[in-house]
Design goal:
With 259 residues, the protein is mainly β. It has two domains: 46-93, no CATH class; 97-258, Jelly Rolls (Sandwich), CATH 2.60.120. It is 8% helix and 42% strand. It has helices spanning 3-9, 19-23, 32-40, and strands at residues 57-62, 65-69, 77-80, 88-91, 99-106, 111-115, 123-133, 140-143, 151-158, 166-174, 177-178, 190-196, 205-214, 221-230, 238-242, 248-258. Strands 5-16-7-12-13-14-9-10 form an eight-stranded antiparallel β-sheet, with no helix packed on it. A four-stranded antiparallel β-sheet has the order 6-15-8-11, with no helix packed on it. The protein has a two-stranded antiparallel sheet with strand order 1-2. The longest helix has 9 residues, at 32-40.
Length: 259
Amino acid sequence: MTKARDIASAAPAPSTVSATELGYLDGVSSAIQTQIDSKIGSASAINPTIVDAKGDLLVGSAADTVARLAVGTNDYVLTADSSATNGVKWAALPASGGFTSLASGSLSGTLTTANITTTGYKQLVIYVKDVTCNTDWFPTIRFNTDTGSNYQYIMTYQSGSTSTSVANDVSLALDGIYVDQLEASVADNLQVWNVYDPANTTTYKSVNGLVVGRGKADTYNVTHSVTGAWRSTSAISSVSFLTYGSTYSTGTYEIYGVK
């Protein structure tokens, strides 16, 4: 019999330790606490001292390797990043709605150009509003200051004084995407342009827009719906806003990138 069983069978038998409990000590060759301490510090064990603060995480930094990732900034999220030391990192949440402001400003002269960086964005959303000019003007958008005949569109618009009167227009080989002339002095107007995949360098850029404003020499607003393209494989690096011969008196633009 083993020593543990010998003790358990002794007379009188131990009153507080059962034979089963003593059996757990079979094979012990040195102080139990010493063995536990050595296991905690071994390469195959995770030592609790690896974490230093509330919110710290244990992550794999390589095969069979555990590392500490310090707690991140409040409201940051854990994001995979193969270039990070531990393969993950804390990153800020995207702005509300995923919109990032790329440029904004006031319109002036006959043309205003905003230089932007589109790398990493899937879409541009562009607002132009509250425009007045010295003469009646054509709301127009242009990319990369390209004045070649590289634009085309299909436009549906209200052409009469009643909401039921509409017309269609198809135009090719233009030097910008534009809509019908608006009245110079009425600032009740808004342009919304969407440009898709603006950073790609292999395909043309798809554009659609909605323009609402006071029609030339009329007393009612005209609505224009435009679907078009900039026939270039260049990444978009600037957006220009034109009047086609008029001079801006007032107006602002905002350009956002969507990831």
